[in-house]
Structure formats: structure tokens, C-alpha cells
Prior knowledge:
heterodimer, A: alpha/beta, Rossmann fold, 6-stranded mixed beta sheet, 5-stranded mixed beta sheet, 12 helices, B: mainly alpha, ABC transporter involved in vitamin B12 uptake, BtuC, two-stranded antiparallel sheet, globular
Amino acid sequence: xxxxxxxxxxxxxxxxxxxxxAQDLKIGFVTTLSGPAGYFGQDARDAFxxxxxxxxxxxxxxxxxxxxxxxxxxxxQGKQIADRFLKGEGVKLFTGIIFSNVAAAIVPDIxxxxxxxxxxxxxxxxxxGKECNKNYFVMSWQNDSLHESAGANATRLGFKKAYxxxxxxxxxxxxxxxxxxxxxxxxVGEVYTVLNATDYAAEIARVRASDADMVFHFxxxxxxxxxxxxxxxxxxxxxxxxxxASADSVIVKAVGEPLLGTAVSAQWSSDLDNPVNKKFVEDFxxxxxxMPSQWAAQSYDTALGIASALKANGGKFETNAFRAAxxxxxxxxxxxxxxxxxxxxPVQDWYAMKVVKSDAGDFVLKLDQKxxxxxxxxxxxxxxx
Amino acid sequence: MSLLIEQIxxxxxxxxxxxxxxxxxxxxxxxxxxxxxxxxxxxMIGAFAMAWASARTGSFWLGVPFGLAAAALxxxxxxxxxxxxxxxxxxxxxxxVTYGLILFFNQMATIIFGxxxxxxxxxxxxxGFVTVLPGxxxxxxxLVIILAGLFVAIGLYLLIARxxxxxxxxxxxxxxEMVRALGVDIKLLxxxxxxxxxxxxxxxxxxxxxxxxxxxxxxxxxxxxxFVVVVIGGVGSIRGAFYGALLVGIVDTMLRAFMPGLLxxxxxxxxxxxxxxxxxxxxxxLLMALVLAIKPKGLFPAHG
Lengths: 385, 304
């Protein structure tokens, strides 16, 4: 009897609770939380949650139900999660993907299924040109841009002969193409590694045997840490010029001394002097007890972008209205000026940074100067919405 | 020339690390007939325990016995509590259970140590590099790994070939039922073999930590290559594991190092680099297919 009463009560509360929950806007957050690059997803998720907290539990007035799942850098696993979110949970708005191979596999599924995808990191070239889509926005950068900034930085610093190292997948190829596009010197060698490899002895030996005067590499996460340490252990002193992906605040802190003086470039720096960034850096540290990385900043910015579009529509999500509002780019981010190009990828400034030792004895990235203004990507011209 | 020697050393170093893992894996499969997918977890546990103890005590060397003990102890617990129930089951059950263990251990590592990779520096006496040949420097730490690995290989050979327990292990690998029929305490032998395998895996993890970083899931990255070694060497054969590991280590490194250069003779630089990278990562699997085609039981089959 009691059991039956309870089950009726449960059913009733369920019936009441369900529609209330259904009003919350579900955001599918497919990200990478495991493996040597797991901290990317962790920073992205934490920063996104911070943005929701700053919005009083909402983004632009819409209560958010954030569904976070780990893709483990496996496109197949990501596809299953996205499929479940789309069909099982009825999710319309997605973000979170870190790796380009995962993005290339599941973003088209999401778009075909009527969803909207706002990227906070991965933006492979194949989705930026002919295959662009009106419901696909990128708030981070087009992949090439990261490495174009490193190429521009290397040219500015006067290097003449570069050796390039990148993993053998789409973003690795984008990286090498991007660097070459803005580097005016000669490329004396390039090597593709296995994605997520941890041993770079063979590649380092090849760099040593070349006559390069600098090394550019795209080895994000644990790979970058392993490379930097093995590079130092092998006694190589060649300067490294890299994008923020290969020397983010986590890598710089973990590797320390051997990276001192390394030239890094990114679209964001924790030193950027604007009120949104100051509040973000301060509150992130207060809440999570660590410095935010570039990945955290990008995710926070993405949440601000989504919030602006939701706010313009009175806290409601409707695909067409959301798209129109987001495209206006009516928001202040943690970085400098930002607008969308013809393929809905960023047009923004890039900055050079240097690895320095802080007063506290930690190794950190310090802002040097702006190197590219209103920088966009080369694929936008092929995009016909 | 010095580049070639450096790459051979790199290959031997990878081979030695693979051997430490493959030795345990091949014994466990050869003697107990269990496919232990969670062998990589023991590698990870050794590395984490070592990193944790080193950070606590501030001494690299104190971390080593701690890492070894943690891996061996986990091995014993795994055998007594879980794997023991799998001997009579078929391989699918074993794979499912040990795969479950991988998920369990990785998640535990994430909960305890977080997702950011732990790095510990090798001690001062092992960091830096030495000049092996004029104009050729090589990291001390990698040389030490090679020496330590060869030392363990010799020790293992003596243990297996010269001692009573080694005799039982060999007998168990070739005629499991006969050993059982002769009244040997097979339970104890199984636990011993499992602990030995765990110890070796833990040792490999300890040596890998300062080089590659310690992260949840690090074991699975190397486990696949380890299985290739076991298959090439012949299941259940320590000797096969040794030669197989060196072969895989050297072939993998050489292909990564020289394939693009070779291909440049036939095609444009950029395509050669991309294709060379691709062939480099496929190389060991092609090698495995080749070995299986010629010697289906591997190079040194234990079961004759």
C-alpha cells in the first residue's frame, strides 16, 4: 500500500518535474576528458560552467541543462554520443568538441539532424570552405590561423630555416599548411607523427640532423609536454616557435625551464587588459584554483556568444532566430575585437607571447605584442551559404 | 651514420620497454590461457605509484620500489579476486572482464590524480646527455632504460632457465595439464606468474613515466604494440617476446625515421612526408601480417 502510494507520488512529481526540466535549454557538450589531452575538455567544461554561473544559472536568460560526455578522441564514440543527444534527448544546440577528427565526423551529423553547432575549439579546413553551413559557427579560430600566427611570428623574429613537426591527421596537416602560408623563410624538413604518440626520439634525431635554425611543432596536450622534455633531454637548443596549442599554460607550467624564452602565439592571453578578461581570469582562479588556459578562455567566450544570441531572443532557442542573432556578434569577449567572416569563422587579432619565469617562480606565458590584426582564414571565399 | 646509430638506439630503447610488458603478457597467456587486456593498467599503476611516492618523498629512487610494489600487489589482488575466476571461461568473457578492469583503473586514476599529466624529472645523475660517438649525443636516461631492460631480460632468462620455479613456469607454458597432474600447487604458480608479469609491467611504467609523462590511459597506448610483439614472438614464449620486442621497436623507429626520406626519391617532398608517416605507423602491423603468413605460430612458438 505504502509502496503504491509512493509510486503514485513519484509518478506525480515526475509528471510535474518533467515539463519543468523540458523548459531548460539542453546543450550537448561532446568533449575530450580522457587521455593525455583530457585537460582540454576539463578546462572547456569548467569555463563553460563558470559562464553559466556568471549568468545566474542561465545563458542570456535561458536556464541551461549542460549534457557533458567524453569522446576520448574517438570519432566513433563521439558519433554515438551526438546521435543519442540528437534523437534521444532532442538536443538542438551543440558545442564542446576539442579534436578536429572528432569534429569532422560528427558536426555534419549534427547539422543534418537539424542541430546547430558552435565550435569552441576544433575548426578543420574541410568545414570552413565549400562545406560551410549556416548553422555552424566557430568562436575559436579556423585551425590554420593558430599556425599562421606562429608562421608570422617566426618571420617577425627573423628565422630563416624551419623544421616542422605535426601529427598525421587533419589538424596536423592544417597546422603545417598554416605555418607555411605565413613563414617567409625556407622549410628544411617536415615530419608527421602518429596522433597521440608519446615518444618523439626518432623525430628529434631528425631535427638534430637537419640544418634548421628553428622548430615549429603542433603537439597539443601531453604530447607537447613529452616533446618539450625529450627535446631538452636530447640536448637540443634550437629555438621553438609554436602556437598556443603546443605551449598552453598547462604545458608551460609542467615543462618549465626548458621552454624558457619560447615564442608562442594565440588569439588570447591572460594578460589582455579588458574587463571581461579580468573578471574571467580572476573568477576562474577563485573557483577552480588554477590558471585558466587558452582552452578555458575559448569556451567561456563561446558561452558568452551563445548567451548573446539567446538574450536577443528573450531566452528562447529557435534555430533561425538564434543564427541571425549570433551572426551579429553582439558581445564582448575575453579577447579583443571579434566578428564573423563569410563562413562564420572568426575575424580577430593575434598576439605574440613569450615563456617567462614569474616572480613566484612559476613559468608562465607573458604577452609581448599584437602580430596580426583582423586576421581571417583563406577558406571563407569558397563558402556559399 | 651517427643518425642511423642514434635511431637504432631509439629502436632498442622502445624494444626494451615493449619486452618488459610483453614478457608478462605472454607468460600469463601462455600459462593461464588468459588474455589480460588490463596489463597496460599495471604499467600505469606502476608509473602513478612511483610518481606519487617520488613527489611525496622528494626522491626519485625511493619512488622506484614503491612503484614496483604497487604494481605487483595490484597484480596479486587482480589474480586472486578476479582473474582466477576466468581460467575456465572462454576468451570472450576474459576480454570483457579485463576490458572492464581497464575502465575501472583509468577512472580511478582520473579520480585520484586528475586529468593533467604528471611529470617527474629524472634524477640529476640520470638527466642530460652523453656523447656516445663524436658529434652524437644521447640522453643518459634512455641509455639507462636500455641497460636496465637488458639486465632484467638476463635476470628473467636465468630465472626461467635455471631455477625450479622457472622450470615449473616453462612446464606450465608447454603442458599445462601435465603440470597440474603432477600435483604442483597450480594456484600458487598462477599467482606467482601473474605477480611477476605485473612487476615487469610496473617496472616498464616506472621507466616510462619521466620520459612520456604519467596519465590515465597511458597503458592502452603501448598495449596494442605489446600484443603485436606477443603475436610476432609466439604466444607463451619469453624468448619470442624478447626478439619480437626488439624487432618491433627497431622496425617501428626505423620506418618513422627513414621512410619519408626514402620515398622522397620517388615523389614530391610533402607527399613523401605524409605517406612516409602513414607507412611508418602501419609498418609493424604489416610486419605482423608477414610473420603470421610465414610462421602462423610466431617466430618462437612455445607450444612446439
